[in-house]
Amino acid sequence: MSFLTGLALKRLSVTILVIILLLVAGVSTFRSLERELFPEFEFPNISISTVYPSANPDAVMRDVTEPIEEAIEGMDGLKDLQSVSSENLSLVLATFEFGEDLEEAERTIESNLTGLEFPAAVEDPDIFRITNDTIPVLQLSVTGDRDIPALQRILDELIIPRIEGVDGVFDTFIVGEVDEQVVVLYEEKGVLSVPKSALYRTSKQMMVRVMNGAVLEERAVIPGDSDGSWVSVLEGLEEGDRVVVDTAPVASKG
Predict the structure, then answer these.
(1) Number of domains making up the chain
(2) What are the two backbone dihedrals, phi and then psi, of residue 233, each rounded to the nearest 5 degrees?
(3) Taking the chain, what is the end-to-end CA distance rounded to the nearest angstrom?
């Protein structure tokens, strides 16, 4: 029998008291520990999310995603670069080696993107490091037989307030918003005119974006003379077409 065992048996009451004190101290320490259902941890990733209202995936890739990728490529510690170009949204995911200083990497990305020139409708890129707190827990899509502005009003007035009223909801955001604006376009000498900001150039031709119901489509046009703010359209549009100007669909009328 060891010395400690013998001492414990001889002083049984003291031994029991010590055990009780240790149990009480353990329970007290456990109850004072900070506990989280989902403890925060950080991935070696930085996300660059950019909203391009009323743009189709091809335009998003050409005007936003590819310039961002070119600005990020070659960074120290960059392991992988992935991107998704969808309607209205560009998402670029930069993956770094474990151990890289992500705060410094985030500052470098912000600096590299500062000099980029996007189309006027493109919103400022949202750059953030990915943690479990930044991952959306619920994503919903909305479709219907109404146009986009009508669906947006339903979201703004009915759906979003109810979601934000749920206990524990930190934030909500909508992708693909379109501000409703109706501009009566004028016709001079039988020629339809559109705001200059509605036109953009591809490698081959001039284009406009037209709302076809709830669907946004690109349409090739042949522009004519311009007075600085308005451009005549010789071919490609008809009276009543709803042309997207920056972030707003425009009702085109003669």
Answers:
(1) 4
(2) -115, 115
(3) 106
Same domain flag for 193 and 173: no
Model confidence, pTM: 0.47
DSSP 73-140: TT-TTEEEEEEEEETTEEEEEEEE-TT--HHHHHHHHHHHHHT----TTPPPPEEEEEETTSS-S---
- 12-41: average pLDDT: 71
Cα–Cα dist 61/83, whole Å: 9
What is the CB neighbour count within 10 angstroms for residue 223? 19
Q: Distance (Å, rounded) from C-alpha 163 to C-alpha 183?
A: 33
The answer as to whether 136 is a domain residue is no
pLDDT in tens, 216-246: 678 888 888 877 677 888 888 877 777 777 5
Phi then psi for residue 157, to 5 deg, are -95, -30
* Residues of the domain holding 46: 42-131
Give the CA angle between residues 252, 142, 216 to the nearest 5°. 30
